[in-house]
Amino acid sequence: MVSACSEPTDSFRLDPAEIVGVTASEDEGHSPDVMALRPSSASPDTPVAEALAVPSDAPVAEALAALADTPVAEAGNASSDTPLAEAASDALDVDDLGAAQQVFLDFDGGVPTFDVVVENLDGSSSVVTSLPSHVYTPEERAAIEALIAADFGPFGIGVSNVPPEEGAFSTLTFNGPLPIRLVAVAGGGFLVNGSFGDSDAIDHRNCNPADAAVIAAHLWEFFVLTDPSGRSFSAASGLAIDAEHPLASRLSEAVVQQSANTAAHELGHLLGLRHHDAFGPPSSGLPAGGSPSPLEFVPPFEGPLDAAETTLHLMSTGRTGATPRVRASIDQFFSERSAIKIMAGQRLSPTPEAEAQTSALEPVRLWVPNPVLEGVGAGPSELIVQTLLVDATLSSPGEIDEFRLLGATGEVWTIDLVSTADPSFATPVVTDLRLLLEQPDGTRELIAFNAQIFEGSDPLLLDIELPSDGTYVVQVDAPDTAFIDSDGDGFRDDPISLEENGLGALRMGDYELLMYSLVP
C-alpha cells in the first residue's frame, strides 16, 4: 500500500492490484488555455536544457516548474492567379534542403534519480521516494541512435551521440527530471502517470537550431523496481515475460523503443510539429475512437473520423491514442502531414501579407520524402504536395485578412494557422479561420470554419474537400471571443470575452498560415 509518508527507496513497493490504469504525459504546457496568455501571468521561461540543473532531490513541483517553453518562430509563400494544377508546377530541387539540422543525443547529462509523487484526493501531493534512473548501455545507445536516425535521415537531419564540433545543434537529453505520478482514484487505487518528455517549444520552421528537449523512460524502471514480479511492467508495456524473454531483456526493449519514439516526438516539436500532425492518413480527418473528441473543436468537427493510422505516427500522444504500450512496443514513424511540415519549414520562405493579397496565391509544389512504413500511404518513396505559406498581421481589432486561391473539385486542403502555439511570436493573436467559395456574382458560400482545436487556441481547417472549381477565400479575423473550459466538462468550448478578461491585446498580432494539399 502506498501512503503519502516518505519511505526508503529499497522498501518502496506498489501492489499491482492498486494500479487502476497507466498513462503517459508529454509536452505539458504546449497547449495553454487562453487565460494563460494574460500579460500579468507571464513569467520568465526556462529552457529545458537549464532545467537539467535542478538538483535530483529538489521537490517535484520545482523541477516541473523549470520545464517551461522557450521562444523560437514561424511563417508563409508566393502569388498569382493560375489554377492550382498548373501553378503547382513551380517545383523546388529535391536536394535543396537548406542548412542541415544537427542533433546531439546526450545520454550522460540527465538526472541520476527520479521522483515518485503521490497526488491525493484532497489535492495535496508529496514526493514519496526517489528511484534510480535507467543506465543506458552502449548497445541501447546505439540502438536508439539508429532508430532516430532512420526517422530523420530522409530530411537531411544528422543525429549523433557525440556533440558536433562546429555549428548550432539541438540537444536531446535522456533521463530528464520528469516525475512518476501516482494519482489517487476515488474508490481506491492509483492511476500511474509517467512523464515521457518535454521540449523547449514548438519551433515552427525550425528557426532556432540550438534548442533542446528531455526524454525519460522512468516509467519502466519504476515498474521493475516497485514490482519485481514483472506483472505491472508487462501489463503496461504489452511485452510478455517468459523464459525466452526475461524481465531484464524486456526492460531494455521497452526503454530503447520508448526512448527512441519519444526523442523523435520531441525533436518533431523542435522542428515545428504539433500533435495534430499525427492524424493520418491525409483526408481521413480525426481518429474514430474519440481521441481527440470532435467536441474538442469549436465548432465541433464534422469531417471524417477515419484516421485509423494515427497511433502509428510519432507525433501522436496520449490525447491521440499513443498509450505507454504503443510507445514501448511499436517502432512509430512520421505521418505524411509531419513530413510535409518538416519539408515546408526547410524549403519555403513565407510570402508577406501585402504580396499575398495582390492576387490569387500560387502554390509551390514540393517533393516530400514519404516516411510511412505501413498503412494506406506506404509504398511510394515521395509525396507530391501543393503548399502555401503566408506571414501576416492583424493590426487592429475588427480587421479581417483575406487570401485567395484557385481550387479544383475534389482537392483536399488543410489550413494550419500558428500564433499562440509558438512562443517566439512576440504579439500572438487569437483568431477565427474560415474558407469561403466566391461565386461569380460576388456572393460567398461558407465551406469551413474553426475557432479552436483540442490543443491550444490556434484554429485549424482539417481535410477540407473542395466542392467545385473556383476562387476560394481564406479569411482570418480576431473577434472578442475565446473558449475555455469554465463548466468543468473537459471541453474548452465555453465562450468568454477577451476584452472583459484583460486579454484585449490578443485581438491584434502576428500569425502564419501553412496550407497544403496532396497531389494524387
Structural notes for this entry:
This protein has helices at residues 48-51, 60-65, 84-87, 138-152, 218-226, 231-237, 247-270, 324-329, 336-347, 353-356, and strands at residues 19-26, 102-106, 113-119, 125-132, 158-160, 170-174, 180-184, 190-199, 212-215, 351-352, 364-369, 382-394, 400-407, 412-418, 432-438, 444-450, 460-465, 470-477, 482-484, 494-496, 509-518. The chain has 520 residues and is an alpha/beta fold. It has two domains: 9-68 and 102-218, no CATH class; 84-95 and 344-518, Jelly Rolls. The radius of gyration is 23 Å and the shape is globular. It starts with 18 loop residues before the first strand and ends with a strand.
Q: What is the correct CATH architecture of the largest domain?
A: Sandwich
CATH topology of the largest domain: Jelly Rolls
Rounded mean pLDDT is: 87
Class from secondary-structure proportions: alpha/beta
Number of discrete domains: 2
Distance between the first and last residues' Cα:
58 Å
Give the SSE layout.
Layout: E1 19-26, H1 48-51, H2 60-65, H3 84-87, E2 102-106, E3 113-119, E4 125-132, H4 138-152, E5 158-160, E6 170-174, E7 180-184, E8 190-199, E9 212-215, H5 218-226, H6 231-237, H7 247-270, H8 324-329, H9 336-347, E10 351-352, H10 353-356, E11 364-369, E12 382-394, E13 400-407, E14 412-418, E15 432-438, E16 444-450, E17 460-465, E18 470-477, E19 482-484, E20 494-496, E21 509-518
Parallel strand pairs: 1-8, 2-5, 2-6, 3-7, 6-9, 10-12
Antiparallel strand pairs: 3-4, 7-8, 8-9, 11-12, 12-21, 13-18, 14-17, 14-21, 15-16, 15-18, 19-20
Helix pairs in contact: 4-7
